[in-house]
């Protein structure tokens, strides 16, 4: 479902993107080309700042927002998901937040008030908030990162982790084509 927010903003979805019919996109959202937005995802840009303004939620080209993901922002802040990034099942991205290009965010992870550098991997059930993750970092499953100081114990992304992230992105890119092809069947 694509709908306006109370301020009157309507999502802008590129014609090559696929948004599952069960997903909800509300408000000031930009979905770029070849994006996959899976079943029951909720992307909502509807809160304003003290001046009544808000930044957009932007989903970069060739990214995938998987089943049950929630993306939202408080007090008019924005969320940017870079190109070729994967936000896996049931994750929460709550802005203000920036996720760079080629990032993998694992199942059930939570990002809040943070910036994640290009090529980073955040594995399953992790929490990242209030910090800046440099490019190429690997955050292991169940990690809790609450400051830049916590990042000192984090190792760089291994080639195997990067390969996994790229395979997820490619699989979801193929889903966009497949679902677009059968769009009129449901």
Automatic annotation (TrEMBL):
Gene3D superfamilies: Hexapeptide repeat proteins. InterPro entries: Gamma-CA, Hexapep, Trimer_LpxA-like_sf. Signal peptide: none annotated. SUPFAM superfamilies: Trimeric LpxA-like enzymes (SSF51161). PANTHER family: CARBON DIOXIDE CONCENTRATING MECHANISM PROTEIN CCMM, CARBOXYSOME ASSEMBLY PROTEIN CCMM. This is Carbonate dehydratase. The lineage of its organism: Bacteria, Pseudomonadati, Pseudomonadota, Betaproteobacteria, Nitrosomonadales.
């Amino acid at each position: 479902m694509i709908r306006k927010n109370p301020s009157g903003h309507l999502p802008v979805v590129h014609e090559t993107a696929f948004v599952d019919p069960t997903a909800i996109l509300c408000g000031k959202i930009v979905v770029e080309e070849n994006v996959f937005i899976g079943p029951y995802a909720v992307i909502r840009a509807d809160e304003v700042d003290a001046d009544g303004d808000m930044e957009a939620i932007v989903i970069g080209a060739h990214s995938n927002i998987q089943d049950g993901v929630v993306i939202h922002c408080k007090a008019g802040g924005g969320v940017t998901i870079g190109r070729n990034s994967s936000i896996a099942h049931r994750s929460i991205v709550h802005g203000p937040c920036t996720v760079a290009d080629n990032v993998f965010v694992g199942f059930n992870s939570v990002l809040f008030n943070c910036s994640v550098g290009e090529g980073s991997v955040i594995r399953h059930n992790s929490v990242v908030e209030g910090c800046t993750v440099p490019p190429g970092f690997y955050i292991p499953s169940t990690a809790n990162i609450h400051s830049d100081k916590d990042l000192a114990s984090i190792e760089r992304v291994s080639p195997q982790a990067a390969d996994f992230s790229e395979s997820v992105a490619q699989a979801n890119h193929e889903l966009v084509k497949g679902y677009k092809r059968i769009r009129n069947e449901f």
